Amino acid sequence: MFDQRLILAGHPALLLLAAMVGILISFWLYYKSTRWGKKLKIFLGFLRFASVFLICCLLLDPRLIQTKSREEKPLVTFVIDQSKSMSLQLDSPATLAFWQRVNQLKTDLEIRGVQVDFLNLEGKSPETTFSGFKAASSDLDQALKSGIQKKSTENLQHLILFSDGVFNKGYNPADRIYSVPVSCIGIGDTTPIVDSYIDELTYNRQVYSKNEFEVSAYVSSMGLSKEEVLPLQVRLNGQLIKESMVRLAPNAPASRLDFTLPGQNPGVYLYELSLGRVAGEKIPQNNFSNLYVEVVESKTRILLAAASPHPDLQAIRSAAEELDQVELKVVIAGVNPIPNGPFDLVIYHQIPHTSGVGNDLMRKEQWDQQALWFITGAATQFNALQNTPAPALVKIKGLNADLARLIPNPSFRQIDINSVFLERLPELPPIAVPFADQQLKPNAEVVFYQKIGLIETERPLLSISQSYPKRALWTGDGLWSLRMQEYSTFGSTEGFDSWMAQWLQLLAAKEDKRKLRLYPSKSEYQEGDEIKVKIEAFNDILEPMFGTTVALELSRKESGWSNNYQFTLSPGQDDFNPGPLSQGIYILKAESMLNGKLEKATAKFIVKDLQTELSNRVADYENLRATALGNGGIFYPYSRWDKASDEIKKLELLPLLHTEETETRLIEELWLLLLIIGLISTEWLIRKLKGIY
């Protein structure tokens, strides 16, 4: 749609005055003249009238207003729950029919002028033909939020969720209010079936060499008419090593079965569990489960020494608890004694202290053998801190403090800071930092800078030495507030805890002099996760080498499967991704010629098949109904597809009108200036050719 109009700085009646001025001047010049013929006088008079009229009009500052309007179609997003639990509700023929119906609904809506797109639980657009129910978990809330976020710049008017209502990750969507109406189509059967399944396994993922370890298996059932006794078997490398009987009763809670498995030599082991089937059970997928155990020689020992109780201690402790291979001991001055060493890392919290409390916890004679992390605060004695191996000198300039946010140093490469933590950093609160000058010691670098207000400074907030053993310095008071605010804003502490775990592992790590190194981003993945292994190559003075080709062999321990790859290192391109992998224990071997010598490296990681999707076999329509009613949508079971599709096609979906208005001052238009000059020049030229000036 296009519209335009002309506006003037004065009243439109002034255009008549401008025309009268042009007519009078033309009449005065040419009406009584007898030098030209009648037609020539009329033509010359018109030229003079037109030029004078246009000049007078420009004095009114005319402006041309142009309005362009375009209509944006309404958008409806189909959110498809492609989790494994859906495969229990739809077999292959039913899945094909489901996808055909969904595509037909899409076509019907498009005929009405509605845009339709698809998103899966991961916030990605699935293929035009459905590829199957493969997701290992169901986070319905995140899928709906992702659909809204991705289409925030479009005319999104409705979300339609196709799901069985079963979720095992994130928030219950029935408890959320979304900014876009949500309708739900319930897939599956809500009628309880006869089933027994391994609901949950609890065990230590990391155990010491040769030590036995405990496993607790929770076995659940539904639809039983009588008590059943089923065998639970455990196999290692295909051999039966344990068998116990579990008793299941009708309408009873999950049965817990505790048993002990023998210790092994250092390595990663896969134990396969299988549960017997009850009478009438038709789908046995959830009667199997795996547990992975890493057997290690010893744990990494960390000592957290503090002058007094502080919320920072709990923040660090909570993150360290996520690391099975870490043993963290907390010592508070005057409360408990220091346990026997040695330690791989010692954290001094507000030590040295202004009052001297806790200074006796410092063991200077051990500093050369252990990594140190100094965390400062309001009670830190900064003058005494200068006599420690901290990687920076801090000179206090006053009693005032600044409020600073964390800004990552992009050139810091000792670890890849957790991406979730980086994404959430802008939403985390500033922390108090001393008003001071900091001077990095030789061989030290910044991990986080201070951002004060809108200014990104070069003052370190967290710094670390590049040599071994590591030394680090945190110059802020309020580390705990980052974790607390993350939970308040995002409902989890995933970002902070993951980063803190990375940081503790970096500090406690022993010096690695290998020329070729492999670092999986995680030790455990779930099926469907993106797998990344960082590859590094170094010369004799441990400088990074690029342009090096690395030969890789990836193998799965249980099946004998293997595949070979070639990978070339380049700046910013050091992550190897083998693509999606099925469950199992994987060994990655690397070889490369570095400085004329063949260097080798090995890494292990686990891909797990998450079984929670198969533990609940019954569709949950109540969640879907509550989600739809709470968000202005409709709910129908898939069994009433015809009615559901009719109601969806009747939804009030309105286009969005976008209007753009532009204003042009005619006095600034070159073409109009050239027109006036052309009229005057033509008149002048004709008069000159006729010999009359």
Q: What does the model show?
A:
With 693 residues, this protein is of the alpha/beta class. The protein is built from 12 helices and 33 strands. The strands form 7 sheets. A 9-stranded mixed β-sheet has the order 16-15-17-18-23-22-21-19-20. Strands 4-3-5-6-32 form a 5-stranded parallel β-sheet, with helices on both faces. The protein is extended, with a radius of gyration of 37 Å.
Q: Assembly type of the shown chains?
A: single chain
- Rg, nearest Å: 37 Å
Give the fraction of residues assigned to helices.
10-25%
> What's the total helix number?
12
Average pLDDT metric: 83
Sheet with the most strands? 9 strands, mixed
Structural class: alpha/beta
Task: Measure the end-to-end span.
Answer: 51 Å
Percent range for β-strand residues? 35-45%
Please report the total strand number as a whole number.
33
Low-confidence stretches: none
Give, in spatial order, the strands making up the sheet with the most strands: 16-15-17-18-23-22-21-19-20
General shape = extended
Structure summary:
The protein has 693 residues and is an alpha/beta fold. The chain is built from twelve helices and 33 strands.
